[in-house]
Amino acid sequence: QLAQLVTALRIQGQTGLELTPIPVQQVLNEAERENEDAAFRKGISLRTVATDAVIKSNSFLLGAALRNLVSNAVKYTRPGGQILVGCRRTCTSLRIDVYDTGIGIPGEHVPQMFDAFTRLNTVQRDGLGIGLFIVRQALGLLGHRIEVTSSPSRGSRFSIVAPRLEVPVPPMAANC
């Protein structure tokens, strides 16, 4: 799957990216489905909060980025831990959050963890250290951004921030 994502990034960067309305729930469901067995085997609670949000994005790249974030949460959360995936809305954007009760990341390491071939956890040797680099590249192509908050031994929140799709709102319903 990593090879497919790298190829897609290369092609999308050369040919332009087609952004379409994406029901976020579909992407959340895919990320949960792909990671639920690994979470179950580790004794981790993986829960997704339902949403009716729609954003303009590319389902392949957005889905790959979110699945990678959830996979990392499973990898770095100890047995008995929890992962919650859901959304927060603002007036102009949607934040897709992956919360975990994992090992956390010291603040000084957060900026470098998106560099290629960077692995902050020297105990776990699986992977090449390019997953978060690819996530950042994919989200950059989409015009989305990644945010991270983390506390060592307490967990992390990785968020994909994307512009909300403009949906007409009746004047009385608007509170922005």
Describe the protein's architecture and organization:
This protein is an alpha+beta fold and 176 residues long. The chain has 4 helices and 7 strands. The strands form 2 sheets. The protein has a 5-stranded mixed beta sheet with strand order 2-4-5-7-6. It has a two-stranded antiparallel ribbon with strand order 1-3. Strand 4 and strand 5 form a beta hairpin. It starts with a helix and ends in a 13-residue tail after the last strand. The model has no long low-confidence stretch (mean pLDDT 82).
Work out the radius of gyration: 16 Å
Topology, number of strands: 7
Total helices: the number is 4
- The helix-and-strand class reads alpha+beta
Shape call: globular
Distance between the termini: 40 Å
Keywords:
five-stranded mixed beta sheet, 4 helices
Question: Care to give the gist of this entry?
Answer:
The protein has helices spanning 2-15, 24-42, 59-75, 131-142, and strands at 20-23, 45-48, 54-57, 82-89, 93-100, 145-151, 155-163. With 176 residues, it is of the alpha+beta class. Strand 6 (145-151) and strand 7 form a beta hairpin.
Task: Outline the fold blueprint.
Layout: H1 2-15, E1 20-23, H2 24-42, E2 45-48, E3 54-57, H3 59-75, E4 82-89, E5 93-100, H4 131-142, E6 145-151, E7 155-163
Parallel strand pairs: 2-4
Antiparallel strand pairs: 1-3, 4-5, 5-7, 6-7
Helix pairs in contact: 1-4, 2-3, 3-4
